[in-house]
Amino acid sequence: MKFRKVAVLLLALFLCSSTLMIASAASQTVKVLLNGSELEDGGIMVDGKTYLPIREIANSLQTIVNWDGQNKKATLTRPNVHIVLMQDSKLFGNVTKGNSYTFSVLSQVDNLKTDIAAVKVSIFDPYGSEKVIQTQTDKITKDNFWYRTEDMKYNFEYSGKYAVRFFLKTSSSDDWTLVSEKLISSQ
After folding, report:
1. Residue 127: beta bridge partners?
2. 108 located within any domain
């Protein structure tokens, strides 16, 4: 009787470990590098097909993801967004550390294939602190438009790269999606 219990227990352990080995052999993790940076979640390979985390890749590629849970469908939209920095009527770019500058952000958006609920333009210092330059919450249904912020005075107190970022929301309940970035060097 004791022998049967031990045999059944060993058989159960063997089956469980065999199942785990087969499952791990059927899927393999895949390291994904995007522009030289490794994605946190990576991907998996199953039966020769590679599956990647769509939201993480879309965020890295500055692409909007609309998820339709009812139809199990993801729609990716990548608008063309060009940012130009203006100081009065002149182009604005590199700055001297410790100085304050008054400038505006002119953004041109085209190839927009989804409606937009809000727009936000922010500047991030080299340490990642955000200062919102301007937001707009009017619904935008055009496939192309221009967006210019009001003049803003900003102190570039650190050396390094400052990022001016352009964000969109497809609905008021969504998170902001980064769709373009312009760097300013401060030395």
Report:
1. none
2. yes
Nearest Cα to Cα of residue 120 among 163, 174, 86, 168: 168
With the C-alpha atoms ordered 148, 109, 132, 96, is the resulting torsion angle positive or negative?
negative
Mean pLDDT by 10 residues, the chain (187 residues): 65 59 65 85 88 88 90 92 94 93 96 94 98 94 94 97 97 93 96
Rounded Cα gap, residues 139 and 114, in angstroms: 11
Q: Is 185 exposed, middle or buried (0-12, 13-18, 19+ CB in 10 A)?
A: middle
Give the three-class secondary structure for 101: strand
- Which of 49, 92, 83 has its CA nearest to residue 179? 83
Rounded to two decimals, the pTM is 0.79
Given a contact cutoff of 8 angstroms between Cβ atoms, the answer to whether 155 and 99 are in contact is yes
131: closest CA among 105, 164, 161? 164
How far apart are alpha carbons 185 and 158 in whole angstroms?
10
- Domain with 138 in it: what CATH number? 2.60.40.3880
How many CB atoms sit inside 10 A of residue 7's CB? 10
Residues 6+ apart with CB under 8 A from 21: none
The separation between CA 177 and the C-alpha centre of its own chain, rounded to angstroms, equals 6
Strand, helix or coil at 60?
A: helix
> What confidence score (pLDDT) does residue 36 get?
85
Q: How many domains does the chain have?
A: 1
